[in-house]
Queue: 2 jobs
Job 1
Amino acid sequence: MAAPLVRTIEAVCTGTARPFNGAELSAIAKYPRDERVQVLTSGLAPDEQADRRHHGGPDMAVHLYPLDHHSYWRAQIGAHDLLDQPGAFGSNLAVSGVTEEAVHIGDRFRLGTALVEISQPRKPCWKIEHRFGHKGMVARIVETARCGWYFRVIEAGDVAAGDQLERVSLGDTRWHVARAFHVLHGSGAQPSDLAELAQVPALSAEMRARAAAKSAT
């Protein structure tokens, strides 16, 4: 049995799609909200994702990127104004004291009055490097599994800064988020691990299919 995990939500962040790279739009810039925010199966309301093919949807409804990683990035890229902001990596939730090794695929949490479940690690993309103006960040995320994760919403509700993120049940304890990320997105994953991960029911359907396809190659 894992130790109780209860953390205070320091900020709830949302964003809108804005010009990001020429004509391309992105909602990676998330900013704290002062009021209570609805937590729906489609995500926080209001919150936007410009690229609905790769972001958003029921299995990527709410994103958490650990605040603990900001100090790591300061050591890697130096002082950066974005690292003083809770939504620097596109995170909806600013939470300290929890990282990818401490939570598992399928863990359920009470998020304010909502109930959410970890559905998959976040796969990093070029927008992180473009936002920070530093190349090599994606490679470091892949190497270290400082990836963050997504929640699906089991029960809708609402949340505000100062509420609790409390784990109420464990998912698949064989698969903490860091291990799932390394197997899905790292190099040298064993076919047996990929096949096992493909059978984890709480993992998003897209990531189960990715694991199954990689196990067969």
Job 2
Amino acid sequence: MAESHAAELTVFINGRFLTQPLSGVQRYAREMIRALDRRPGAGTRYVLLTPPGADPSSLDLRSIPVRTVTGGRGHLWEQIALAWAARRGRLLSLGGSSPILHPRQRVVIHDAAVFRHPEHFRRGYAVFHRVLGRLLSRIAVLATVSQFSRGELAAVLGLPESHIAVVPNGADHLMRATPLQGPLADLDLTGRPYFVALGNLAPNKNLAVMIRALGRLPDPDLRLVLIGAAAPAIFDRAAPAADPRVLFAGRRTDAEVAPLLRGARALIFASLYEGFGIPPLEAFAQDRPVIASDIPAVREVCGDAPDYFAPWDDAALADHMAALLRAGPAPHRFAQGRARLAFYTWDGSARRLETWLAEDRPASTSR
């Protein structure tokens, strides 16, 4: 059904993401709300609803009011307490999950991974989110983060692509970070050549191909730094690395990631499947080259800026790594990377989001 009197209704924002570990989805929600907070009239249009225990102070909101909603946690809070608290307005959920009982809602689903690659997730997680995605596709107005994901979601949910808007990620958050000086010394990287991989240690990140590629390079001083944490409640556990030159750096703040990226020979982004892929843009924000798997979403976002390899081809990845160790990046790569970065900003995405919110789009049941 079409949304009625949309301009007159408060937009309640689902704040459940504030209780979750930071990954690409939570990054999107955080940065989008920060950007919305700077939009004209934000203080009268939006209200952020948070569950007990959430800490919105890190968002540094100056206009959008925050309201704590009691009543359970996790999915229980979202499906019952949030739906009731937002019943007199519209609900905006930026993290792919939303209550199925709310009649006027817009939801950003970031990718179709639970449909296309359920083997990458714990079985219960994949089943629940497939069911939830199908239900939301019938009652909510949907958006996603790339043209590739729009096509994927349309195919698996049985929707026309025109029913799914595209509101992409940004990466300029890493340009705002004040770099800390300690991470390189803490990880014993000072003076060493190293490559960085950035993202949660999930199966789709393809750690195995990076470790095999490292094994083809004999330099004992070379390091592969993996920044991110495992999420065993969501993803199957990744096999541990056998090469002692692999460093697990764990979760890091933006202020720590910035110098680690800037000191690296390149970012390696070896994903098997992505709906978007923020880390290459974060590398471009630090003027670093990218070696990336040749998959559709990365091609869409990054254009010709990275060196590409087939995601199973560790020999090709090792060749790219060796070339960067030997000769450094080609100068034109930096200009290409900055051009891609300029296209994906959080302020630009917030403007697209508000355009989408203002459109009188039908929910899928009215097609």
